[in-house]
Amino acid sequence: MAGHDVLKIEDLSISFRTEGTLRSAIRNASLTLRSGEILGLVGESGSGKTILSLAAMGLLPPNAMVTGGRVMFEGTDLLRAGASALRRLRGKRISMIFQDPMASLDPIFTCGDQIVEAILLHEKLGRRGATARALALLEKVRMPDPPRIMGSYPHELSGGQCQRVMIAMAVACNPDVIIADEPTTALDVTVQKQVLTLLRELNAEIGAAVLLITHDLGVIHEVADRVAVIYHGDMMEEARTAQIFSAPKSAYTRALIASMPSMSPPRTRLPVIERDAKGEIVSVVKPSATVRAAPAVTGGATLLELRGLTKTYTLQATPLSAGREVRAVDDVSLAIPARSTLGLVGESGCGKSTLSRLVMRLIEPDSGDILIEGQNLAGLDVAAMRQARRDMALVFQNPYGSLNPRETVRDLIAAPVDIHRGGKDRDAIVARLLDAVGLPKEAAGKYPHEFSGGQRQRIVIARALALQPRLVICDEAVSALDVSVQAQVLNLLHDLQAEFDLTYLFISHDMSVVRHVSDSIAVMQKGRIVESGPAEEVFERPRNPYTRTLLDAVPQVGTMQPAAAEA
Amino acid sequence: MRLSGLLRRPLVLASLCVIFGIVVVAMIGPWIAPWDPLALDQNNVNQGSSSAHLLGTDEFGRDILSRLLVGIRPTVVVALVSTTIAALLGTALGIVGGYGNRTVGFFIMRGVDIMLSFPAILLALLAVGFWQSGVLSLSIVIGIIFIPQFARVAQSATLQVLGQEFVEAEHAMGARYTRVIFRAILPNILAPLVVQATLTIAAAILLESGLSFLGLGIVPPEPSWGQMIGTARGYMSQNPMYVVWPSLCLAMTVLAVNILGDALRDHLDPRLRNA
Amino acid sequence: MQNIGAFGFAIGSRLVTAIVQLWVIATLVFSLMYIMPGDPVLMLLGPDSNPTPEAIAATRAQLGLDQPVLSQYVKWLGGAMQGNLGTSLDGYPVAQYIGNGVFKTLELAFAAILVASLIGVPLGIAAALNRGRFLDGLLTSVATLGISVPVYILGSLLILGLSLKLGWLPASGYTNMSRSVAMHFEKLILPAITLGFGLAASIARMTRSSMLEILGKDFVRSLRARGMSERRIVWRHVLRNAAIPIVTIIGLQLGNLMGGTVLVEALFNWPGLSTLLVTAVSNRNYPLVQGAILTIAALFILINLCVDLFYTLLDPRIRRKRA
Amino acid sequence: MNIVRKLGLATGLLALMSTSAIAEGSLWFGLSAEPSSLDTVVQPGTAARTVKLAIHRGLVNYGIDGKISPELAESYEISEDARTYTFHLRDAKFHDGSPVTAADVKATFEHILDPNGKAAFRNELSIIDAVETPDDKTVVLKLSTPSVALIGYLALPESVIVPAAWLAENKDNPTATPIGAGPFTFGEWTRGQEIVLEKFDDYYKEGKPALDEIHFVFYGDENTRVNALKSGDVDIIDYVPAKDAEALKAGPGTELISTYGPFMGLQFNTKFEPFSKPEVRQAIAYAVDRSAIINTAFNGIGAPIWGLAIPEGYMGYSEAKKDYFSHDIEKARELMAKAGYPDGFEARLLASSQYSFHQNTAVAVQSELAKIGIRLTLDLPDWATRMSKAGNADYDFAVLGSLGEIADPDWLTNYYYGGDKLVRTNNSPYFDDPEINGLLDKGRATVDPVARAEVYDQFVDRALELSPIVYFMWRQQDYAVREGVTGFTNLPGFLTFQSGYSLENTKVED
User: For this UniProt entry, which segments traverse the membrane (chain B) (predicted)?
Assistant: First the structure.
């Protein structure tokens, strides 16, 4: 699908002014968008990919400074164009789709109003004409019942529907360029699939040049024609998609692809990205720090068993409305053998987080039993439950939120010791745990904000292990991390399981991660377990249609992935 | 919480200087006052500025400058004590209201609502009416008046903190409630409370002055700024500067505290800082 | 729709809460009044007149003050529940007093809120749009100053300048509309400005911060990316979004004004509820004090309820939550 | 937008109308308080008296010259033994159109003397044994004990005559529309705001009153009251604060109508030491520099009292004893030493923060007494609490600001008499001197003026010697009016608070 060059980013360098100094964000980046083509821009957080996209719209924040290069669109340099000239281009010739579709819509106007307004901004159609066009657009983005959507407010739609409305607005004026910044990151995997497909089809229809920015190589693989890889502000390489995955040129790209869980056999250590002695980026599979044979997975006694666990919430939308009942967890029964990992998958809102809290009785179950080595936690009183919690630990999704920002790492890690053992041997334990999770000793005196996301997750894990628990519940423990960091944390979890005889309840929405870490799998939908079994069996031969939908929706990368090979 | 950025703003620095000055004067006022603030001089009433009386004299011939200097103390004491009372009790109520069990929380917050619907100055009017007015009773009354605001702020901050995972982490580790409150909640709701405290100090100064203005504040002849303003209002035509001086002092103090509070709020609110 | 039933239920439960709230307040005031020193009978008969003990006793009996406090309380409460606030110590129905004062206080409060909004909202918008620049600093400083100057100082200055020196406006009092419409509004202006000025300051600050908050939202960026002009973004989208918290804060301030007009009413001899209450307290006119405070609290609660309703109407996110 | 235009319009309008809005023939009277009651027989304060005297008339009242003026009674006689008063009624009408008859007078007095009633001066009037009505126009009062002072009490606003029929119906109805025989009829009372009176066309004095209506507007705050007069919101105000007297006198546009009426002093709780000792009380009388109080608390306006507070020209006034005390710290110290307090003592002075002249007097006294070692704590609650404390003698000593009720020397009874009720508002609690009691009884019953004067001379000697009350000064009691208001008279001396009488003469020019 060869097209002509529409938008050219040439040799662009951007810096940020922060407290008197300049911090370089992008260095000498060049990109060319061609009509009818989807260019994927992939990079981890902080790589500068979003800044690049904003520059392409002339929407740079005030504290950003262009130190070199230009962004050419039809002979105009967008970085130096006047405000009104830019305004005529935006939305009409170049349009943009953002990450969080719900937040990107004005909450107090109906979707119809907003689409009509977007059309009328650039075309003299009259209100009636614009409304007709809006309806047609909604039809085009395959919204059910467009007239109803026209009259709906953003909060009345789902995230996927909102993103379709955004896409409808983006294509409203048949733009030459569409910039999509992480358009599916906030969406569930099944919805992601639909949105990506839609984007691709629309693009084929209107022939625009699309810049698709994402951190997810799977997404790129799914829809992009060409791929550009950016790392710490530097363009690493640019190539056709197939080529990137089959024969990546730059070491970074290679390493990045290698660290994806789906690229390695399940239950192995993942390669991680490192810089070697010469400063070159390399991908290495490091041996486990502790030399110990992997435990026998099968045949272990059951550590955790859930029986008929149920939790119902009453939701009250506003203080002035009546509540309605929601079954968050509905008659869930599960068993996890000791020293094994159970992967719990499901889309957002399916009740998997509630389940994790129920197990620890952070939320009181309505009914059901929680048995740990035969002891039923559901019947314990407050004090006994407090005691019981020393054998369990919880690792959360958000490494920024799960550490008290006002405490030092030492106090954070020693917290379980303080709580259950009156602080006995705390310093020694902290030192040992820091070592175990691969953090330097000096870390003990620092505060969480001085660490990166991956390091924080290590701190959280260290804390979880302080009292050598039997069960560790990982609730989306790696979801907020970049692929490269995710690989490190997954490795760590892998090693620790061996070292400390841990049993994991591993909760995630990411199928490939779950596949990678789990011995057995449970699939959750609307509060119920719809399918469970050994990991291989569930992934290879899903019995439940929902499981199948989930698996189908996962973007597949490369040819080494077993599931993809079958597909 | 880095405060160095704050000090770089001239207005904030000036406010800090004013506040520092006021606290110092509140401590040493009686020693630096050129005259006895209570000494009547029947031959020199309502005089304008002179070399003997820099800011003139009041209706009793008392030195206005000396009264201003000495009058800071009750003002400052009432402001600080009442804010302390409100902060301690309000925060406690707010935390329990937010963190405690639902029924307790419900009753606490409804109680707070009731206090809020009871107009502040009227409460003071009633309370001061049956209590002897004095620095201590005034502080208590004003302190009680500001409890609900603190409770609201503390409660909403607590709820916000409770929504964060580190609190859940404490529970997951089996922490006791006291540990959760003092280690997890309190340090993390401090920022809005500090802001609320500065605003309360300013409001308490204003309320004290308003009560003194109504004749319900500090007992004469001990001076307080509000009481001086209230009295001076009657002498606006004879001795116009009499009302100007305490008004200026009061407005400047409240202004300084408000500016500091604003700056702190801007500084502590990451959303405003980075926007 | 099931929504409407739920809505009605919610309103109902709010009203029940309000009634309980009022009952607690009434009880509080009742007990407070009875531990206050000062004898209502003495104040009624005139302390200078050396009333004989028989006269005092007779009056006390006539007013029902000789009965046990508890039975007085029950009697009063019984009346209050039927909407009868009882009889003021001078024999007039409390409701009559309150009827006179309440509309004057409401009128003053609404006028002050109007003044405050007319000044505060534009200032806040201007400051937000010029964030970090000179104008913002200036407006913010003025607003802070507005909060820092006690109303009675401002009011005194206005009286001295506009009324006594220039003679433009009357200094005090209230003229019934039926007597002179012009005079009625003349007398409203100074108190409304005095009261409104401090409120304007906080409304300006609130406007500024909620404008800034909305300006920082994602959808503003996406509006820009759609090629919308800044002016349209600000006036059509940002302002409408910001209006919700602004209207809320204005409503809450209106509620606070129900009991917050004391100083201004005293300063301008505005015969509203607060003046009534202050007089009643100084005369130890218990039934009147109770009635007035109850009215003030009821108005406060009512206005807050209205604000919540209004808020619901204004914000589609709440208005059209799917059932 | 609409609102903005409306406001602009209002602003424009008021510029046009700001001076001429007040209707012709209306007087706007800024009263210092809202009367707590218009019940004729109670005495809730000056504001109520002012309104009452516009609505009502008694058999006699104090006239603008301070003398007894025959009102509903055309004339009266007092018998030689001072036991029979005979009144001859004139042809006057009540506001309801009915004539004033002897029956109305009889009913009025029966109401006042009702033992279960709340009449303020029932005690003083209770010497009336019988009210006889030989005919429609004649009333005879028979007294149980001789009293020449009674006529003074009959002249008070609390002794005004109301219709018998009205009484029968409304005796226990505090909200009934008042009916009287005075110059103005009751119009409307907007609670909390104003009382409106209208001209009574059938008033018995030809050509009076001049005003069509009077609006009594309540101004509790003294500064606001003064501002209201200055800005023309009202035409006349009572209780002009001392600090504003000079400015209002100088004008422009305002005038001051002054008299020396009330006095300021101290009353002592004589139940306990040290104030039970006459030496201490005298020491205080010597120690306080009267000019210090006048110059500070009263802005230099007032006349010092160095003896008893008996106005010049009143019976009991003594030129020789008027400077009995002097400002003499040495003497004061001697007396303190003699009483056993050479180093002074601590005490609590009760006043009230609600009235600036009370509070200011207390502040000045505190400063003055410090000079002889008396260290004071000021107790300045609101007025109701102050009065309740006074009623329970819950104080060491208190600031007294008051006056005699009547122009007859019998007013002293209220301040000095002991007897069975030792705690009263205006006396020094627990002071009970048989000699003084005897002299006061004798004075009241003595008909011959010369003999009577002698009795009161003896009283003055004894009162000064014991000094249960120490006087400081005559307070100037002012009304201030706008230019163009004429005919309002501040009644002299103790009668200043009955100046409402002169509203019948008051005129407003445009």
Answer: 12-33, 76-99, 111-130, 136-154, 185-207, 243-264
Higher-pLDDT residue of A263, A222? A222
Q: What is the pLDDT of residue B1?
A: 43
Q: Which residue of C has its CA nearest to D34?
A: C279
Find the domain containing B268 and state its range. Answer: 3-32+52-273
pLDDT digits (tens, 9 = 90+) for D404-440: 888 888 888 888 888 777 887 888 888 888 898 999 9
pLDDT confidence of residue D1: 40
D223 chain-B contacts, CB cut-off 8 A: 233-234
CB contact under 8 A, C317 and A153: yes
Of B114, B202, B206, the CB nearest to C24: B114
From chain A, pick out residues whose CB is under 8 angstroms from the CB of B173. Answer: 389-390, 393, 415-416, 419-420, 463
Domain D60-170 has CATH 3.90.76.10: yes
Touching check for C223 and chain A: CB below 8 Å? Answer: yes
Look up the CATH number of domain A302-312+328-552: 3.40.50.300
Question: What are the extents of the domains in chain C?
Answer: 99-285
Which residues numbered 240-269 in D keep a CB inside 8 Å of some CB on C?
none
Q: What is the pLDDT of residue C48?
A: 60
For B42, the closest of D292, D378, D382 (CB atoms) is D292
Q: Which of D295, D356, D366 is opposite residue B221, by nearest beta carbon?
A: D366
- Give the strand pairing for A226-231 and A209-214: unpaired
Report the gap between the CA of D194 and the closest CA in chain B (Å). 23
- Whether the per-residue pLDDT at A1 is higher than 60: the answer is no
B and C: number of Cβ contacts within 8 A: 121
Instruction: Using a cut of 0.90, tell me whether the model's pTM lies above it.
Output: no
As for the ipTM of the complex, it is 0.79
Question: B89 to chain C, minimum CA–CA distance in Å?
Answer: 20
Please give the pLDDT value at position C50: 63
Q: Could you report the per-residue pLDDT of A412-453, keeping only the tens digit for each?
A: 889 888 888 887 888 888 988 888 888 888 888 888 888 877
Q: What is the CA radius of gyration of chain B?
A: 22
- Confidence band of D186 (pLDDT split at 50, 70, 90): very high
Smallest Cα distance from B264 to chain A, Å:
18
pLDDT of residue B131: 65
Q: What's the pLDDT at A322?
A: 59
What is the structure's pLDDT at A60? 82
Chain C contact for D47 (CB, 8 A cutoff): no
Q: Superfamily for D262-474?
A: Dipeptide-binding Protein; Domain 3 (3.10.105.10)
- Nearest by CB: A390 against B170, B174, B188: B174
Supply the CATH classification number for the domain C99-285. 1.10.3720.10
Tell me if B121 and C215 make a contact (CB, 8 A cut-off).
no
What is the structure's pLDDT at D3? 45
D 95-114 residues inside an 8 A Cβ radius of C: none
Q: Which two tokens stand for residue B12?
A: 């904030």
Chain C residue closest in CA terms to A122: C227
pLDDT in tens, D273-286: 888 888 899 999 99
Domain positions in chain A? 5-258, 302-312+328-552
Q: What is the DSSP string of chain B?
A: ---HHHHTSHHHHHHHHHHHHHHHHHHHHHHH-SS-TT---TTSTT----SSSTT-B-TTS-BHHHHHHHHHHHHHHHHHHHHHHHHHHHHHHHHHHHHS-HHHHHHHHHHHHHHHHS-HHHHHHHHHHHSPPSHHHHHHHHHHHHHHHHHHHHHHHHHHHHTSHHHHHHHHTT--HHHIIIIIIHHHHHHHHHHHHHHHHHHHHHHHHHHHHTT-SSPTTS--HHHHHHHHGGGTTT-HHHHHHHHHHHHHHHHHHHHHHHHHHHHH-HHHHH-
Q: What is the CATH number of domain A5-258?
A: 3.40.50.300
